[in-house]
Prior knowledge:
With 332 residues, the protein is of the alpha+beta class. The protein is built from six helices and 16 strands. It has helices spanning 21-34, 47-61, 65-69, 134-159, 170-174, 309-320, and strands at residues 12-15, 37-41, 79-81, 100-104, 177-185, 199-202, 208-213, 219-222, 233-234, 242-245, 247-252, 257-262, 264-267, 274-282, 288-289, 307-308. An eight-stranded mixed sheet has the order 1-2-10-7-14-5-4-3, covered by helices on one side. Strands 6-13-8-9 form a four-stranded antiparallel sheet, with no helix packed on it. The longest helix is centred in the middle third of the chain and has 26 residues, at 134-159.
Amino acid sequence: MENRGKSFSSLSCINLSSPDVHESVSLLKQACLDCGFFYVINHGISQEFMDEVFSQSKRFFTLPLTEKMKLLRNEKNRGYTPVFDEVLDPENQVNGDHKEGYYIGVEIPEDDPKSEKPFCGPNVWPAADILPRWRQTMEIFHQEALEVGKAVARIIALALDLERDFFDKPEMLGEPIATLRLLHYEGKISDPSKGIYGAGAHSDYGLITLLATDDILGLQICKDKDAKPQTWEYVAPLKGSVYSESWRYAGALEQLYFQVMSTLHRVLVHGPERYSIAYFVEPSTDCLVECLPTCQSDKNPPKFPPVKYGTYLSQRYADTHADLNLYTKYQT
């Protein structure tokens, strides 16, 4: 696809192997003040292994729909999501997202008491005789991506004038809801004027999103969601990197006040099918989400009441995903 006439966003690049922590914190602060997206390089996941994860992802999505529907996502949000299962921008979308996906979370045995909690439990896996080594590949990637997410979280903590390990606490990323999502955009050409999108405009829910993509352009970000009309810029793929999306700061850290929000983004598909891998780094289901201590003062009190993260996330998924009862004919 030609890039002439397209507007591109310039992103900061965070080097996780850099010994200059001050520079990393400074770059991350600027990225969050600017757009909330940045590249992460030297993250420790080899390109060879990333290629293998993408290859295994493609193997799954090329299975017949009847086989994929046997692995339909369950009430814990583990498993396959068909095309149109998700509607991220109902005001502007006609049917829903022209993508299919696959959720993989932290593996928790069914007999573990923790499996009773929202987003906790065993994963749904394809049979090994159909996709050999698929589970092993995804489990290893899940573990490695979580370490990348925790490394980014430590830089965020320093940027917020918190202790480096602030987010490592058990109730936060010590026992996280960490979700890997494989994504496949089938090639249906997007047309915003007709409400057709690969992924509708949305803001992510959690602490950090890591995103690896193939070399097909499609991701767009909007730095000012309230602008009329909105301005959308493409984010160019960078080989060997992952995108990271975090909170966006609107305000001044020096005044101990800022409003945090996730940047509005969407995916447009221009013909070729497209693959990406998202990894959502989120606190535990029991975590009480409230204003951080360095982000409030007597003059600038918290704007929102505390909320239990599992309750919050369950509502966000219910708002954006199809009711599982719609798939009754596929369930046995």
